[in-house]
Write the structure tokens for this entry.
Amino acid sequence: MTPPVPNDPGPYDFVLDAAVAVAWVLPVLASVYTDNVQSAILRKKAIVPATWLADVAQAVRAAERRRRATPAYVDGKLAGLAGFPIGIDDETAVRLWSDILVLSRTHRVTVADAAYLELALRRRLPLATTDAALAAAAASAGVPIYSP
């Protein structure tokens, strides 16, 4: 299975948080919002920080360890996820020890969450998220939450 392709030139419509994508893999986490974002991604393009691949993999691996999903099930869902129009930002790594770390400190969120916030700020895009702490940080930073 091949993950989304880095350096896709866009244009993009929103930044996609891993929490939303993980809900597409693990239905127990799904909501009307995550379902609507999934429907929207069939006509819109999302961009994610380079950390997104690891964020999604970490979350689904945790579900496997807790026996909430089997590896075969996860692999099938990830193969479908890889087919969505999701671009991977190529500047995340160079911003981790600067802009992203500063945003993490300023908004008191994890570095992983700050990567999504930084990307949304830099690209001037709304953020699709179900993470309450990230949504609060986005509101504080003036980043709108994506409305599909």
Summary: Residues 10 and 92 are 16 Å apart (CA to CA). The radius of gyration is 14 Å. DSSP finds seven helices and four strands in the chain. The chain has a mean pLDDT of 92.
